[in-house]
Automatic annotation (TrEMBL):
<dbReference type="Pfam" id="PF13302">
    <property type="entry name" value="Acetyltransf_3"/>
</dbReference>
<dbReference type="InterPro" id="IPR016181">
    <property type="entry name" value="Acyl_CoA_acyltransferase"/>
</dbReference>
<feature type="domain" description="N-acetyltransferase">
    <location>
        <begin position="22"/>
        <end position="160"/>
    </location>
</feature>
<protein>
    <submittedName>
        <fullName>GNAT family protein</fullName>
    </submittedName>
</protein>
<dbReference type="InterPro" id="IPR000182">
    <property type="entry name" value="GNAT_dom"/>
</dbReference>
Amino acid sequence: MRFDGDVTGPILEPALLVGDHVRLEPLDPRHAPGLAAASADGEGWRKWTTTVPTPDGVPAEIDRRLAEHAAGRMVPWATCLPDGTPVGMTTYMNIDEPNRRLEIGSTWLAASAQGTEVNPEAKLLQLARAFDELDCIAVEFRTHWHNRQSRRAIAALGAKQDGVLRNHSIWRDGTLRDTVVFSILREEWPAVRSGLRARLGAA
């Protein structure tokens, strides 16, 4: 499956991605109760540098992401444990088919899943689909300048920082967000893949 120039084409096909420690299930309203519990785990919505829905706001966020998918702008997943318990969300977004680029973003995890094998394996699955199946040239990651935890996690994947988009967007509290942009290039993918596999093996 590759980019084919058709916004309804393979890149937007829902794909179940399964690893040893995580399942990325195509997002569905049935995930709402589990995702509400995941949101409550750590109260991530209270952190001003992140955009985690409140437990009550999870159904609306699922609807928003599914609407973005229907419009050809996003591929949303529920991040689940092997037994199917939802622990967060993630997406492909900012899909640029002519240039075969996309961003892995709008990602959040329950506090209990952070620092485990869940995030690195989820990224391994998403990157493998992007590079090996969709023939991406580059995959981006973006985060708030002040979200140091996220910046460390992205760098730990093997992504390189491209730069900082200053005053890039107006944040929900009215402040101006500086956005840090990272990317992994197609020729860097084999080394990144090996690094992630070694990291998971060590875990």
